[in-house]
Amino acid sequence: MIREYDVITIGETTMDAFMTIHDSSDKVHLDRETGELCIKHGEKINVERYDFQMGGNATNVAIGLARLALKATLCSEIGDDETSIKIRNSLAKEQVERLLMIQTPGASSFSVVINFKKDRTVFVQDVEREHNFSFEEVTATYLYLTSLGNKWEDAYNKALAFAEKENIKIAFNPGHLQLREGRDVIHKVLAHTEILFVNKEEAELLLFNHYGEKDDDSNGYIEKLAAKLQQKGIKTVVITNGKEGSYVLDEDGTFHSRDMFPGEVVERTGAGDAFASGFLAATIHGLSVPEAMTWGSANAASVVEHIGAETGLLTKEKMEITISKS
């Protein structure tokens, strides 16, 4: 029997430990000019709070979609340790199906996130995976393809072949490894992409192979970036730009912009994933591009009001209430 989903998300799953350090700590210093976070070597540093949550782009988006009343399944690879049990139980609680998940001997991926002065510094354990995913007896409206670690190219090619065979739309959010390596594979995926999700710097890296081609936050510059990306075969280009808001060039050639949704910033992890899940969910629910941008912005604003990428993700009911009050 073929199982049908609204979205299959493909990417990594991690367990993240968040360490929040008080802004007034005299043991930690942020150099605003260089962006360097300085910690005295050998010191004992007090942590204001610890939080443990699942992470990984595909995992965050799958949970975001499930909360927004869509049927989502996660295609990912985890270990067989105690952490993997917590991951599977947490996904079950979120009503994200695990049919396509792979467990292999060894440790699950783990990250440590330092939250200081409302921004994060991430230490990532890069566990090498084979990503030998199988898509037998499933289909979906969308594949959400995002960041994978080493040996990602075969998984991307397999996902693309599956999408073409089953006539499944692709929503694509390439990770930093993909943006810097294997550009032939990336451009092949872009040519079949329905919706591309990138931030401004990622758009520049895709187009120019390095960040910061032009230090410009104007709508005109963002629109030019989106138009150049659309020429690669993408139907809808979504570009986020932090405090400047979000921008969309739709398949009809209309350019849309939206300010950031109001809210207090506590920690920024997962803002991009929250925007993507809100935008994609609204699209699947049949809403317009401006409405989808509002869903994305509201979801991102809610996430950054909490520690971690998942606590603040809105349910469909809360989304509708939040938007009605805005």
What does this structure look like?
With 326 residues, the chain is α/β, with parallel strands linked by helices. The protein has a single domain, classed as Ribokinase (UDP-N-acetylmuramoyl-L-alanine:D-glutamate ligase), CATH 3.40.1190. The protein is 34% helix and 26% strand. It is built from ten helices and 16 strands. It has helices at 57-67, 82-93, 153-166, 176-180, 183-190, 200-208, 219-230, 271-284, 289-303, 316-325, and strands spanning 3-10, 14-20, 28-31, 36-39, 49-55, 72-75, 77-78, 102-103, 109-116, 119-124, 138-145, 169-172, 193-199, 236-240, 246-249, 255-258. It has an eight-stranded mixed beta sheet, with helices on both faces. A four-stranded mixed beta sheet has the order 5-2-9-10. Strand 14 (236-240) and strand 15 (246-249) form a beta hairpin. Helix 1 (57-67) crosses helix 8 (271-284) and helix 6 (200-208) crosses helix 7 (219-230). It is globular and about 55 Å long. The N and C termini lie far apart (44 Å).
Uncertain spans, ≥5 residues at pLDDT below 50? none
Straight-line N-to-C gap: 44 Å
Number of distinct beta strands: 16
Average of per-residue pLDDT values: 92
> Globular, elongated, flat, extended or rod-shaped: what is the shape?
globular
Name of the CATH architecture: 3-Layer(aba) Sandwich
What top-tier CATH class fits best? Alpha Beta
Q: Name the helix and strand elements from N-terminus to C-terminus, one letter apiece.
A: EEEEEHEEHEEEEHEHHEHHEEEHHH
Structural classification: alpha/beta
Strand order of the largest sheet: 6-1-11-12-13-14-15-16
| Percent of residues in helices | 25-40%
What is the H level of CATH, i.e. the homologous superfamily? Ribokinase
- Strand content bin: 25-35%
Number of helices: 10
Largest sheet: 8 strands, mixed
CATH topology annotation: UDP-N-acetylmuramoyl-L-alanine:D-glutamate ligase
Rg on CA atoms, Å: 19 Å
What is the count of structural domains? 1
